[in-house]
Write a structure and sequence with these properties.
By secondary structure, the chain is of the alpha/beta class. The chain is 29% helix and 10% strand. It has two domains: 98 residues, Rossmann fold (3-Layer(aba) Sandwich), CATH 3.40.50; 65 residues, no CATH class. The chain has five helices and five strands. Strands 3-4-2-1-5 form a five-stranded parallel β-sheet, covered by helices on one side. The protein is elongated and about 60 Å long. The termini are far apart.
Length: 199
């Protein structure tokens, strides 16, 4: 039998709505829509663990199991396991075990440091502190103003051709040099015009 591969899923912001932030560590929110279906579907193919910075793992496991109807267990810190390979139970842990993929609302996909740095500064809308004036061709406010112009935003904040506007915005963000090393673009930017769907 071929062993199952593992998927790691973040708790707050991915399973738990987390709309108020940390809020004293209380689990106050609701299940993110689609979570139960997605976790059940993934468990048909992968072993699963939920990773969290929360200290009360049992509370997370109890809350999650009640919401999704899948058995969940809190990780036992001693002895520390090397990986998670139990197929019919979701582990809740502070550890990030080996996995083929991690699902995280604050994750930045890493291809190389140039891309990762650009994505981090773009995602947080923070100017890159390069210390090199020649590395910066625009400040973020000017780029955003230029984007509004490129998108054809009129005085009523309306856009005549949304698809063309999205393509112009994507292309401008890819070419902006706000951070050393080049392209400033949002983490979730489309890869091509075919990825853009305007309804």
């Amino acid at each position: 039998m071929i062993p199952r591969r593992t998927i790691g899923v973040d708790f707050d912001g991915v399973c738990h709505t987390y709309s108020l932030g940390w809020n004293g560590g209380e689990i106050y929110g609701e299940l993110v829509p689609g979570t139960a279906h997605a976790l059940r579907m993934l468990m048909g193919t992968f072993t699963m663990f939920i990773h969290t910075a929360r200290s009360d793992l049992a509370a997370v496991a109890t809350w999650l199991e009640a919401k999704i109807g899948i058995p969940c267990v809190a990780d036992d810190p001693a002895p520390r396991r090397e990986f998670w390979d139990i197929t019919d139970v979701i582990l809740v842990s502070r550890n990030k075990y080996p996995a083929v993929a991690y699902v995280d609302d604050r994750g930045v996909r890493f291809v190389g440091w140039e891309q990762a740095l650009a994505d981090i500064y773009a995602y947080t809308l923070t100017p890159c502190p390069t210390g090199r004036a020649e590395a910066v061709d625009q400040d973020p406010a000017k780029v955003l103003q230029e984007i509004a112009t490129l998108a054809g935003v009129d005085d009523d904040n309306e856009v005549a051709d949304p698809r063309a506007a999205l393509i112009a915005v994507r292309d401008r963000l890819r070419n902006a040099k706000i951070c050393e090393g080049g392209g400033w673009r949002p983490v979730r930017s489309p890869r091509s015009a075919d990825d853009l769907e305007v309804k």
